[in-house]
## 1
Amino acid sequence: MTTIKTQFNRRSFLKSSALTGGGLMLGFSWFAGCKASVKEEVGMVLPDEWFDINSYLKIGDNGIVTIFSPNPEFGQNIKTAMPMIVAEELDIDWKDVIVEQAPYSQKLFPGGPFGQFSGGSRGIMMKWDALRMAGASAKHLLKAAAAQKWEVPIEEITTKSGKVFHEKSGQSAGYGALARAAVGMEVPEEVPLKEPKNYQLIGNSQKNVDGKKIVTGAPMFGIDYQKEGMLVAMVVSPPAFGMTFKSLDNAAEIKAMPGIKDVFSFKTYNDGYKKSFFDVNAFPELIAVVGNSTWEVMNAKKAIKASWTATKASSATIDRFGKDITVNTPAGLESTVEHNRQMETLFSKPLKVVRKDGDPARVFKEAAKIIERSYSAPYLAHNCMEPMNFFADVNENQVHLAGPLQAPGLIEPVVAARLGVAEKDIKIEMTRMGGGFGRRAYAHYVVEAAIISQQVKAPVKLMYTREDDMTNGIYRPTYQAIYRAALDDKNNLVGLHIKAGGIPESPLFANRFPAGSIDNYLAEEFAIDSNITTGAFRAPRSNFMAGAEQSFLDEIAEAIGKDPIDFRLELLKRATDQPVGEKNDYDAERYAGVLKLVKEKSNWSSASAKVHRGVSAYFCHHTYAAHVLDMTIDDEGQPTIENVTCAIDCGIVVNPDAAKNMAEGGIIDGIGNAFYGEMTFKDGKPAKSNFHEYRMIRMSEAPKNIEVHFVNNEISPTGLGEPPFPPIFGAIANAMYKATGNRRYHQPFLDGKAVLG
Amino acid sequence: MAIFNLKINNVDQQVEVDPATPVLWVLRDHLKMVGTKYGCGIAQCGACTIHLDDVAMRSCVLPISAVGDKAITTIEGLSEKGDHPLQKAWIQHDVPQCGYCQAGQLMSAAALLKDTPSPTDADIDDAMNGNLCRCGTYIRVKAAIHTASKM
Ligand code: FES
Ligand code: FES
């Protein structure tokens, strides 16, 4: 039997009645009152009294259970999946569960800055033990309460569907009847966990718990947040990277505009403040304009006249996950043309060697044939459909913050430091996010909202316009890579050489496949400083490297006359049987597993001649994903993606249909970014500011069908938000080559044109 | 500032606003009906889709002064109990990911079904191409429209 130590994370298991104030702080203060609709919506009778069992759940006197989903939801569907894990161990029927978003609380959900973090595809993986423990230990308390009441040994007590049974005596009771007594029971040192084969709920698809609210337009996003007396705020930032605020030139005129309360400039961080890795902000000083309504503030924002000046080069020490690093920010107005030239120049200079196996110099010197290819990808904007926004109400007693953010634990200390308040006086509500994709881990907009509220002494909702959202930085960096392969005179792959770099970071993962499968291997990198701010974007760095690598492997396979899947499997067999080096970052057998599954499910060996197929596989964020993409192309060169077959190994799949939805989303988003995604710069200015310029994938361009298959195993679950995304870039490149005979090396592949040529 | 008498989801409403104010902000700011979403403000994303007398419109570029006596329907009024065939089909197919674009998707789809009760894939593409979804729920949106058309 699996057991789990309950003292790990013990503090979160303090009975909440023992907490100051008792119980949980809950509920959003929406005007429209979501609360009232809960009863009607869930179609269940609510209890008269709730009993707090631990920070993850409370049980009503009628047996209804409320489960709190600890991490913020941005579409990855953890708000359904996380409570499912608790319910599984608790042995409660899903129909008797109400799910609520937990507030941010180190006391209730300890775990440091990343305790309630959504990002890096790590939500389910990091909370797997805690969620199971929450359910299992609550179940134990109920059993203990029954054992005491019936005066029988706890070992003889069983549970099922929200009920406790003592078979010998024929007694039974509902969880609701035992909840009051359960609160007083002792939390044991250890509780047993279910074996995966006994799961009832995990592995059975459940609908999104917010589905009804979403389809009826109920208020639930940060942008929907309202409070009596709330003002609307917007910011104006410099017109280009490399520029900074100098003066606000028509404040009096702006203040006289209808509905406008105030206009002023402010610094997001205090001078000399030591930033953390996630405190990236493009422009240190902004202009805020505050008024009664969005439209009035938008008009005033347009009318603002300000002067800007060039920034100076600077250097700062930044705390990167507890380690100090130096970040240099150059002066100047940067352009994409110049960036590309800078990167190309560096490839001919000595680079930083990150990994070397064997004697790559010799095999390349002696090679019968060398294949060398260059790849590039542009900056990307996140373009979450809900633009950045946040609610802040700062008064003398407390700071109330509410809105969309991925990392409340990172931003709370930042707000505390900036406003000079104690962290305990800050309350953060996490609203459903209209997308995140990494962007909302950089929550400078929360600090901005708080400063504005403090200045105008009123509750404020800070809203970014789409233009602000798209031109304010935190882009996916731009990257380039050169892949080189050495073949001997028998057409064996004997050496691989990767050179990769980017602005402002290198995309290289030197220890990932195909490292470990090739005797002679060299991986080198470079990075170039920039004043254009960047950040994590769905599967950072992998989202470029996977496409380049998987496209290059296809070219090698073709050059040596092998089937692309068989070729990859041969390399993986080598990495399994006789791995080269010791630091390989992947499990070659699981990697091969998804390739074999996708080969089988796509009928790889018997494909129709009319479709052009591309395969690709990648491992990142602890999950393995492989795709086979089928493309057709009409007489005008218009590509259609007929089908994508996808195989994934993420261990146990908690909520299969939702997991498929996530994979479909990653695939469609990946196709969109591969075909169209691009941000460029001229003289520091982003070339695109809204969706008329920034091309996003639309319905008619999505694949007609996507089939998702999961490897069936009992390995603890890992994430899904990112892993299906990177490999699709390679699958597309490989299918496009089959369709046209031309290989695309530079993203976006359709480069403004709708057609392939 | 001017006074406008509106009929929204069969309810009479009166607002006093700048005549140039887009319907989107009248709904969201003045009437506290926040189901209709802002995504771009320039009729490029469809998040703000409403019906004006059964025709799908982008409310972010529709000045309140242009409404006249036409009836406005928003996501909140698509059905009384959230049981429009599209809403049911959306739940059946578990369409949403983040959910932000979905009110707009539903309103565009509802206008399509009024016009074309049994749409083909091509009809759906035409009607829905103006609605962006960064999460990539397009396949499920399409499947749900087909399901609803058969209800
Ligand atoms: S907000 Fe109206 S179309 Fe985008
Ligand atoms: S569901 Fe997130 S944008 Fe469509």
Note: Chain A has three domains: 2-204, 222-314+388-463, 475-740.
## 2
Amino acid sequence: MLIGIGGAGSKLSSTFDGGSNVVINISEAELNKAKAAQRILAVVHSGRGKREGAKKNPEIGKTAFISIKDQLEDMVRGNTVITSTGGGTGMGITWKVLESIAQKDDVPEEEKTTFILVLPYADREPSEYVDNTIQFISQPVSWAIDSGNTGNVFLVSNKEKFVNRMTEAEFNGLIARRFNAFFQIPAKCEEHASLEGHIDREDFSLYLSKPYFNYFVDFDYEHKKPLDEQLASNTNRLMLEPDTPLEAMFLLEVPNHADERMFYDVLDHFESRNVVPIYAVVRNPNLQVPHLTLSLLYARKPHDLVNDFIRISEKRTRDKIRKSIEQHGTFGPKKVNLEQEAMKEAMKAGKKEDEVISVLKRIGKL
Amino acid sequence: MEQPLTKLFDQQVGNLDQAHVNLLYWSAMAEDRKMRYNITNAFDDLKYLQHTRTKQAVYAYIEALRVCCLLEIREEGNKKNLYITEYGARALETLVNQGYTLQPSHFLGG
Ligand SMILES: Nc1nc2c(ncn2[C@@H]2O[C@H](COP(=O)(O)OP(=O)(O)O)[C@@H](O)[C@H]2O)c(=O)[nH]1
């Protein structure tokens, strides 16, 4: 079961195949728009959330969590949560879910929760989204991963949407197609004639229950070409780049008459990296060329991830300051420390008082 | 109900002085920069600006803000860090509009 929380989570959850989805939101209007088997309204008593949603303020999501705590904690067991990391509702509610998971002594494999987290494209999206993401990754996501109590965490990036100027619906459809291809691995193993290895539903669930980041990709496999090269030219641009893999899984589908022994090349690739993947090779008569679906589990430290976002966020602040200097026209471009000079200049002009109001808004207090 | 509360808020805000304003301002700036601002930093900064020379006085400033729910103190790994509340933000906004100056924090680098 897929549990979509907040705006992005709800919309995305209804585009995925396979079973029922639940959507959770604090705004009744938004909730009714979503296609779902079940809808849960989380309640915020302040009145503000009810009327206008969380407005990028995760405190509202965290408060709303209280109203659905027992039901949600029960529901996430053994299931998948999908949310954006930038907004207020999905991120705020998921924050509390992760926090409570991190505090448990032990979570049995079959009760592990997997998380699909949709990160903003830091170059183009509002800084509140970026700042929320930094907090979210460096705190609850990091606590939950460290506790070993979560299942896989998938990190999806909105970058491609902006780079390719896609509509939201197109982009969500693309995300869903990629995920469906991955989640279909055990079904494909059941459907097609098995040639080598095996991945059944239990194997797949066990893999999903590990507390690592999951990166996956699927592409038409070229027998003669080294896998490194193929992986380099077929990255899954919807996801954050993986670190060194700790575990791996693959499904190789081969058409009729193709020699299935090519799977040994894939095994060799992993052997040189000290990884023993679980795998299956099946005969898929609907295909013209072999197709590889491959997943890697990696443990990139969340703070490295956060650093990437902080770097972008800082660069943006620097650019803004630089721009304001250019507008003031007081300094030549050769000045040594542009930022400091800009700060001084801004202060001289009495800008500090104006700035504080935007700071208060930015940190969600006003 | 709304009327007396607004009046109370105005009275509370009216009783704050420059040191209080600074504390609210610095807590907000630190949070915005993803830094933590703690009681010791507050003491150093207020001493530097010659608002006080004793830590007790700093505690008193902070305590007053806390009791009025303008500032929150969070224990984070041995440190008592200061965070402005939504009320505090409104108070600071009001004070800035009334013409209070914002003094630089040494700890936050001017
Ligand atoms: N991929 C995708 N991202 C979305 C969608 N809607 C919102 N987002 C992203 O989600 C973030 C905003 O969070 P949102 O889910 O709208 O807020 P919430 O309702 O308060 O949880 C931003 O980074 C948006 O770009 C969507 O339909 N698809």
Note: DSSP finds 15 helices and eleven strands in chain A.
